[in-house]
Amino acid sequence: MISIPEHTLNDGTRFPALGLGTWPMDDTEAEEAVAGALALGYRLLDTATNYRNESGVGRGVARSGVAREEIVVTTKLPGRHHGYEETLASFEESRRRLGLEYVDLYLIHWPLPRVGRFVDSWRAMIKLREEGLIRSIGVSNFTAEHIERLERETGVLPSVNQIELHPLLPQAELRAFHEARGVRTESWSPLGRGSALLDDPAVVSVSEALGVTPGQVVLRWHVQLGAVPIPKSSSPERQRANLDVFGFELGPAQMAVIAERAQQRLGGDPEVHEEF
Ligand SMILES: NC(=O)c1ccc[n+]([C@@H]2O[C@H](COP(=O)([O-])OP(=O)(O)OC[C@H]3O[C@@H](n4cnc5c(N)ncnc54)[C@H](OP(=O)(O)O)[C@@H]3O)[C@@H](O)[C@H]2O)c1
Fold it and tell me: pLDDT digits over 53-73, tens only?
């Protein structure tokens, strides 16, 4: 079993340096993947109300036999439930589907600036954390401006911002902002969603030089940036390979060459993307 290094979040909780994504698994697939991943040594899990697999993730956790306090379970608030009371109710539904006493990390999935209710949701999340039902609160797809608004209006910074991040979209400016404010960066679609990135000549050449796979090169790039990647894989072999990135290092030139390319967003633009 591989042991994963940990970060400490700005609220003092421990946070594994790499985790497992579960979109677009269904309940059955998620249960298998989560139980298998926990046996391999994964301790950070990522789901969301909108993935419709929280029950499967919860079953995988229960089945694994790994002590609950060793596992960091993340889920997310969907756009249709923004608002104070709506957030309290939505969280309770997620907690019930997961079958857990508490959730480790709860994120606002998208800011939906046009709807304009993410601060109300944030206040509800602060209350849930005070009540002990959530250990850490964070956001996803927030810009620096959205995060500053949370701090200005509530005095509470998120512990994590989960953003689209991979060598096609290195997000240098937002990462620097996070670092300055003590917000941990978490990377979604860290492998570029299984796109051509893994066949890219620069990535392949670094992988050949180091004797590892292209996927491992890209995940190691995240780890060395201090960002926490959550690669999704339903395959036990790829889950194992994705976890095995703590025994080698990329040099400065290898770090640079991987991200030297035209920028390309694979998902939505946080300023305008709406999903409910
Ligand atoms: N907050 C948000 O808005 C947001 C948005 C998107 C995603 N997410 C989260 O981030 C997680 C990861 O993102 P993602 O699933 O979009 O993309 P990803 O993790 O970059 O890529 C996943 C794809 O790559 C394949 N894959 C996994 N490991 C591989 C390897 N070593 N070599 C080659 N192919 C590999 C997977 O297939 P196999 O399963 O067959 O291995 C899958 O098709 C999601 O599962 C979800 O939890 C969050």
Answer: 999 999 999 999 999 999 999
